[in-house]
Design a protein that fits this description.
single chain, alpha/beta, Nucleotidyltransferase, domain 5, seven-stranded mixed sheet, five-stranded mixed sheet, 11 helices, 41% helix, globular, binds 5'-O-[(R)-(carboxyoxy)(hydroxy)phosphoryl]adenosine, binds zinc ion, transferase, cytoplasm, iron ion binding
Length: 347
Amino acid sequence: MKVLAIESTLDETAASVVESSGSGVGIVSSVVASSANLHVKYGGVVPEIAAREQLKLIIPVLMESIGEQEINEIDAVAAAFGPGMMGCLLIGVETAKALAWVWNKPLLKVNHIGAHLLANWIIDLRSQMSDVRLPEFPAVGLVASGGHTDFFLMENVNDWKWIGGTRDDAVGEAFDKAGRIFGLPYPAGPAIDKISKEVSDEEYKELNKEDKLPRPLIHDKTLDMSFSGLKAAVARAADNRSLIVDSRSKNIMIRDFSEAVTEVLVAKTKIALEKYKPKSLLLGGGVAANSKIREALKKLGEEFSIPFFVPELKYCGDNAAMIGAAAIMRPVEASFDDSPEPGMDVV
Ligand code: KG4
Ligand code: ZN
């Protein structure tokens, strides 16, 4: 089965052609355009600007992703129906509807958050099938993105249960808000990741214990998380220590921020692994691109003797290949009068 998939939930406009390949999903093409640079000066995505950019980008992105492929080989058209910003979602969903109608193909409805985890079924078409290892169920999945930080118990590809998540800000939001205080451009996750790696262990040891940022809810035994206090703590510390003028101590604090977030995610994932004893651990979402978090969760998987799966970097941030993967793994047919769902639930 071959699917043309569209992603337009926020500031990325993406299209991809994917096909089923064994028990996984192969990527024929994946094109991602972004309006992120237009939102930099506002420190976050401006809905009206993002929606206008979706309109501008959708056709060129689709044309590039379809390329020379035969339309009659495409079996279905999929789109992310939510969650996301209504103005942005409308562009992708209505474009998908128009194509499905004109080509007389089924229209598939995908949940963006679920797709971040289903990106773990993407396989490299060039690799030998015998090398491919795919997640086994039951699995524990952690989605860490700009809008969500949630744990799911995945009994099988269709049956998922929400088992915990953040009470307030998403972890990506914490990266972006802290980044703003550190004077880094939106989205700040990649810059915080890079700077953290540049601070050596010796330098990091200079940070006094009492000057360290809090690790919110780290000793709480549930899967509840909270990241809004971390942002406030960064703001307080920045005020107290005039960090904006001292780049060395600022960088040490940036590393501490990464350590704090990683420690919390590891502690919470550990609770989930102890409680649910899954056969695999899955990570997905924009924050899954973070090198420290990837490394730490891989190690945790090893401690529990279960494989850890995280998508290739290009399939962590918003992209349409994951929407296609979700459409193939978990097809849900939509009708032409279905609307985008800005608050769509995963389970
Ligand atoms: O999944 P995503 O692309 O969009 C949403 O669905 O929200 O996630 C975007 C988030 C942003 O908050 C961005 O700062 C964060 O992912 N991010 C990172 C890294 N790359 C992107 N956070 C930490 N480390 C990174 N390397
Ligand atoms: Zn996302």
